[in-house]
Amino acid sequence: MKIFWKRFKRNKLAVAGGVIVVVLFVIAVLAPFISPFNPNDIDRKHILEPPGARHPLGTDDLGRDVLSRMVYGSRISLSVGFIAVGIATIIGMLLGAVSGYYGGWTDRAIMRFIDIMLSIPTFFLVLAVIAFVGPSIWNIMIVIGFTSWMGVARLVRAEFLSLKEREFVLAAKALGASDMRIILRHIMVNSMAPVFVSAILGVASAILVESALSFLGIGVQPPTPSWGNMLTSGKDNIEIAWWLSLFPGVAILITVLSYNLFGEGLRDALDPRLWTSER
Amino acid sequence: MLIYLIKRLLEMIPTLFGITLLSFFIIHLAPGKPTDILTELNPKITPEARLKLEKYYGLDKPIVVQYGMWLKRIVRLDFGESFSGDRRPVMERIWDTKKPLLERRLFITFLINVLSMLIIFTIAIPVGISSATHQYSLYDKITTTSVFIGFAIPSFWLALLLMMLFGVHLGWLPISGLKSMNYDSLTLMQKIWDRILHLLLPVFVSSFGGLAGLSRYMRGSMLEVLRQDYVTTARAKGLSEKRIIYGHALRNALLPIITLLGLSIPGLIGGSVIFENIFGIPGMGQLFFMGVMTRDYPLIMGILTIGAILTLIGNLLADIGYMLADPRIRVK
Amino acid sequence: MPLYILKRLLLMIPIIFGITLITFTVIHLTHGDPAGREMESMETAAYGDAVIEGTIGEPSTLIPMLAGDSASHSVAGMIFNGIVKYDTNLKVIGDLAESWTISSDGMVITFRLKKGVKWADGVEFTADDVLFGYKTIIDEKTPTPYKEDYMQVKKFEVLDRYTFRVTYKKPFAPALTSWGNLVVLPRHLLEGKDITKSDFGRNPIGTGPYKLKKWVSGQEVVLDSNRGYFDGRPYIDRYIYRVIPDPATLFLELQAGGIDMMGLTPIQYTKQTNTDFFRKNFQKFRYPVFNYTYMGFNLKHPWFKDKRVRQAIAHAIDKSEIIDVVLFGLGSPATGPYVPNTWPYNPYVKKYEFDPEKAKRLLKEAGWEDTDGDGIIDKDGKPFQFTILTNMGNRQRINTATIIQWRLAKIGIKVEIRLLEWSTFINEFIDKKRFEAVILGWSIGLDPDQYDIWHSSKTREKEFNFVSYSNPLVDTLLEKGRRTFNIEERKKVYYKIQEILADDLPYIFLYVPDAIPIVHSRIKGIKPSPIGISYNLPKWYVPEKLQRHRIEP
User: Which of A194, A226, C256, C371 is deepest in the core (most CB within 10 A)?
Assistant: First the structure.
């Protein structure tokens, strides 16, 4: 753990990313206290106002305060990211564990299934399903989750393959521990680190997928603000109201960037193989 | 080697079957019928007329029967006639043999993806190598940040900003489409130039986002190789760092990248929906989105299947490339 | 041109369900008062040049009777003519018909066709073509949504090469206007063929001012002028539809010169096109269209059964606010199912002024009060909470729902908004009556017959009285209206219907939007009229000096 910290701290970008990730999280949690206005309050007298004293980030085409919507939007965008990734991680760990632990035809069947999922352009699948079942925020989370678990599954399977022949697992087996117990207590715990890293990176992708869906009109639906749908509705007015697309665009950029830098930094720091090779 | 290839090909068959099964049922379990789009807009249509339309399209049969019928046809690459638009066969809409190559949807999407992949590779590999050899240096940080910005910026937003800058304000590049209105009256050289101008922005936008993944992967792969015993040995022998990197490490570090090539195909094809829509490019992604919006089941199924076939072919090519590049595989 | 077609489309389909919502309809122009600049068409008309219209939706087929979307009808309307059409005073005039006579009981119409009209391939157009079109549309194998009007015909007889007679089963007031371009097809090309299978929909041959030159899917539809057009050779040699699916891209193309005309959004009209650049290079038009947007209640829902509740909600909504914010003032409030300045429109119906206090009083009368102090009114322990459904992709409608949600919150009603993909919306929610309230629009025809929307018999699944409105008096009036020919008599009937609807409020009629197209200023000869601008498209021209494109034949 100490070595981990030491290594992680060396990577300034990752630290910066981590700090931003934490700050964004705090903003999302404290949204009601930070927002100067109710994010859904319409004001016919202040439509498309540029940033100023009253509205630090301006107002949108319904006269709503952009800052407040950004702050609340961070809740939505982050929860889309977290829940989608949560679903993906659970599915991935489950299938990966079963596949790696049992091997044989179970393993072959699951690996085949992963191959299939990896061969379908998943964005097409997401698009088709969302368009058909309706773009509610839950559907979006679920569909993204169900189409992005393959990486985690492979990762966990690989860990399992390498761990299951290790002494401590064999010992547990010899002592008569159940499969479930071995999977959960002994192997899963040991494969948590890479899964965590891939989850961090996954949050970033999920936020981007949501914004792409918003661009096509099937993302999180208004009036609920998400950065993706704010950016999309802002783009139509980009020439007269730059603030409507600039702020959500930059917010997405910074968030995704931070998650990536943070995740990469963690990966480097956690990778035991990297520890010996410092120059 | 031949045996290996055949084995790989045979393995693709169940995968392909699985893909068709999966996409068919997911799409067909969604609510609503494709004939809605023809009938819902008009209050004058009678329920009988509606039933007639559904029968006409074979939607009254059980779903398993529909799947069987469909599967039988796609073996011959016949995806049926699309429900929407001109109701032409799906295959003809994707790959219209009556049109010049440059105007077939599949080819347009393919061309843009291949071009962006080339750009991604030519930029990402050197960037990845140098940031690996200069790990944690300022250079590493700058390149890391900039490739990630490429990844993090929503592509439709970037596209729009570039269109405003180059299309409207500077007037250097066309905004959308694949060729100018006066294309037919141009000379050959002008035609080629016209095509290139139209492709610049879409190819740039679609490759910019892909840089991050590959260059990071290259960096990681290079770091890994540089840690191997033989590199240490080479260093011990006193070889120059340059020789070590380009003479020994690069070849091995590139191997996993070949596999990545195959894996990145679905992502690129998926991304084509976005940039084809914003740049008004008549490719497969745009067609797919139209299909989704009009619930054109045969079209959706057809494109999903073709996308999957392309990916499988890509993976196969990557495998072959890997085999050729890595003697160890051949022995196995 | 879309005008030209739209007019025709309207002529044929009395009501199109919520047309504006699908991605197809970007440009829907219709009638009204021009607010654009005066035309200084001093320069002389000249042949030549090309006009490029930007559009979000691509046609699906160019056979009018098979097309359900307005993009298809727009293009098809350039290529085909109807038997009759509307003139700029909303009067029915002959298009391919020279004249017609209607029997004194109104049950028999005899059309005399113009002589010497040629299909674009040179074959003469005759009454047999109309007979063929009629037979095709009523053929049960033809998957067309437009059958209903033609099923009212008892007998169709061709009297000679240029004369045909239709006899109706019962008096049918919309009879004459139903003879638009849906039933005009070249028999010599299509007889014995399955029109759904033939490629005629991709390569149509019509009698209209333009003919199809090429159609590149997802990119453009190119029309060339029909030099032998019976009404005179159109001045503009080429008319191109450019398909650009993204609205922001479309507007950038307009500025970069890639397109010459498009339908603006209210924001673009008000805020983005007032620069010198636009004043110099473009002409804008503005006129009301034949459609209105409404919020409909599910009248089977116990809460909405109570008229006071519906009226309270009407008082809580500020229509002028919606028009200001959503339409930037480019529209007018709707008061009933007809649009202002048309003959069936009744301006004297009951109106609901914006008055939240009155709304609260009415709700209290109906038993709704905030008894538990949570800010939401309740009755029998249930909070007043409902969901408004509307379709995704229509910015104006979504913003309208958002404003209503916010306004109703202020009188203690909690509203959720759910946006649904169009066909799921219709199939799973509207048809199965699984909704509490919806925001939708109707495109209405020039004939006031709205039997299908308001008659109590039209409430089965897939029928159009999906709000389950039932009023015996309205039923009687609707039947009377479609069987009466005398305009004054009909007017009385429809005035009465509007009065009842305004009191019953099965819908809250929200607004009638204006069409706001923009056209490049080099194009002259545009004369805005109650039916829009495109009706005289063949007469548009670009003076020789200003011509931009040279068309090689």
Answer: A226
The residues, ordered by sequence, that sit 6+ positions from B313 with a Cβ below 8 Å of its Cβ are: none
CATH of domain C291-514: 3.10.105.10
ipTM given for this complex: 0.84
| CB of C470 closer than 8 Å to CB of C506 | no
Cβ neighbours, 10 Å, residue A127: 25
Question: Are the beta carbons of A218 and B293 closer than 8 angstroms?
Answer: no
3-state secondary structure at position C383? strand
Query: What fold is seen in the domain A19-25+78-274?
Result: MetI-like fold (1.10.3720)
In this structure, what are the phi and psi dihedrals at residue C153, rounded to the nearest 5 degrees? -80, 130
Tell me which H or E stretch contains C215.
strand C210-216
pLDDT in tens, chain B (332 residues): 678 778 888 888 888 888 888 877 777 765 555 454 444 444 444 555 556 656 655 666 777 777 887 788 777 777 777 766 556 788 888 887 777 888 788 899 999 988 998 898 888 888 888 888 887 788 888 888 888 888 899 999 999 899 889 988 888 888 888 888 777 778 888 888 988 999 999 999 988 888 888 888 888 888 888 877 777 788 788 777 777 777 777 877 887 787 777 778 888 888 899 988 888 888 899 889 888 876 777 888 888 888 888 888 888 888 888 777 766 655 44
Contacts of A278 in chain B (CB under 8 A): none
Contacting partners of chain B (3+ CB pairs under 8 A): A, C
What are the structural domains, with CATH classification, of chain B?
Answer: 109-295 (1.10.3720.10)
Q: HSE (CB half, 13 Å, CA atoms) of C246? A: 31
- Per-residue pLDDT averaged across C101-113, rounded? 93
Token couple for C224: 């060339």
Instruction: State whether residue C240 sits within 8 Å of chain B by CB.
Output: yes
Chain centroid, CA B20 distance in Å? 18
Domain ranges of chain C: 291-514
Q: How close, in Å, is residue B289 to chain C by CA atoms?
A: 10
- Quick check: C265 and A218 CB within 8 A? no
Residues facing residue C414 across a β-bridge: C385
B312/A121 Cβ within 8 A: no
Contacts of B264 in chain A (CB under 8 A): none
> What confidence category does residue C3 fall into, taking pLDDT thresholds of 50, 70 and 90?
very low
The DSSP line for B100-126 is -GGG-HHHHHHHHHHHHHHHHHHHHHH
Q: Is B59 on the interface with C (CB under 8 A)?
A: no
- CB-closest option in C23, C258, C426 to B40: C426
**Beta strands C50-55; C238-243: pairing state:** parallel
Distance CA A49, CA A55 (A): 8
Task: Tell how many helices (H) and how many strands (E) occur in chain A.
Answer: 14, 0
B152 Cβ neighbours under 8 A, 6+ residues apart? A204, A208, A252, A253, A254, A255, A256, A257, A260
Residues in Cβ contact with B203 at an 8 Å cutoff, skipping those fewer than 6 apart: B112, B115, B116, B119
3-class secondary structure, A76 = helix
Q: List the 257-286 stretch of C: residues with Cβ below 8 A of A.
A: 265, 267, 271-272
- Looking at this protein, which amino acid is placed at residue B318? A
Provide the residue count of chain A: 279
Query: Which of B143, B232, B268, B292 should we substitute to test contact with A (largest number of A Cβ atoms within 10 Å)?
Result: B292
Inform me whether the C-beta atom of residue B61 falls under 8 Å from chain A C-beta atoms.
Answer: no
Q: Do A132 and C421 touch (CB under 8 A)?
A: yes
Q: B49-106 pLDDT, tens per residue?
A: 556 656 655 666 777 777 887 788 777 777 777 766 556 788 888 887 777 888 788 8
Query: Where are chain A's structural domains?
Result: 19-25+78-274
